[in-house]
Amino acid sequence: MAEVASARRSRITPEREAELYAAVLDLLREVGYDALTMDAVAARTRSSKATLYRQWGGKAELVVRAMRHNKPGGIADVDTGSLRGDLHTFMSREDDCTMERNSDLMRALAMAVHSNPDLMRAFQELLIQPEMDEFRRVMQRAVDRGEVRADRPALEYVVHMLVGAFATRTMIDGLPPTQEFLRSYVDAVVLPALGVPTTT
């Protein structure tokens, strides 16, 4: 899917692609995934529907690629020399306002995934799996540095722990995730589970 999509998207400029993604996310916030249509995207972006289908194949891929584009650089790009530094830096890439908006968007999209097989497939292939792969690289760096033992059971659950922090912050505390909350969560939950000291 990724290679085909890359060939399709090569026909438009990166600037135009970014504009389209921004418009898609605006529509997604306004009407939700189920009510979002390619007709509406075409009208909002002054594009033809044929162009959108040629570039992205359908709504599911377009929406998930817009979500992926909207995220800050991947955690694999961060290398501070320590796992704690990497995770803290990654958690600080979005300000609290942006994090709240994106968290709301991701939560709404995650709910839609369960009733849309195409969205589920795109979500897994274009968003979840690449992030899992990036986190595995970061964890392997920590293992190679001697920070984390290779047989530590929590290594396989780092992404689950972090997603849980985002997902449950609103449900349990009635508050959006913030940089301060996520950094404290990393120190209190993630690093101890990996056997990493949390001294500053």
Automatic annotation (TrEMBL):
<dbReference type="InterPro" id="IPR011075">
    <property type="entry name" value="TetR_C"/>
</dbReference>
<keyword id="KW-0238">DNA-binding</keyword>
<dbReference type="InterPro" id="IPR050109">
    <property type="entry name" value="HTH-type_TetR-like_transc_reg"/>
</dbReference>
<keyword id="KW-0804">Transcription</keyword>
<dbReference type="InterPro" id="IPR036271">
    <property type="entry name" value="Tet_transcr_reg_TetR-rel_C_sf"/>
</dbReference>
<dbReference type="InterPro" id="IPR009057">
    <property type="entry name" value="Homeodomain-like_sf"/>
</dbReference>
<keyword id="KW-0805">Transcription regulation</keyword>
<feature type="domain" description="HTH tetR-type">
    <location>
        <begin position="14"/>
        <end position="74"/>
    </location>
</feature>
<dbReference type="Pfam" id="PF16859">
    <property type="entry name" value="TetR_C_11"/>
</dbReference>
<protein>
    <submittedName>
        <fullName>TetR/AcrR family transcriptional regulator</fullName>
    </submittedName>
</protein>
<dbReference type="Pfam" id="PF00440">
    <property type="entry name" value="TetR_N"/>
</dbReference>
<feature type="DNA-binding region" description="H-T-H motif">
    <location>
        <begin position="37"/>
        <end position="56"/>
    </location>
</feature>
<dbReference type="InterPro" id="IPR001647">
    <property type="entry name" value="HTH_TetR"/>
</dbReference>
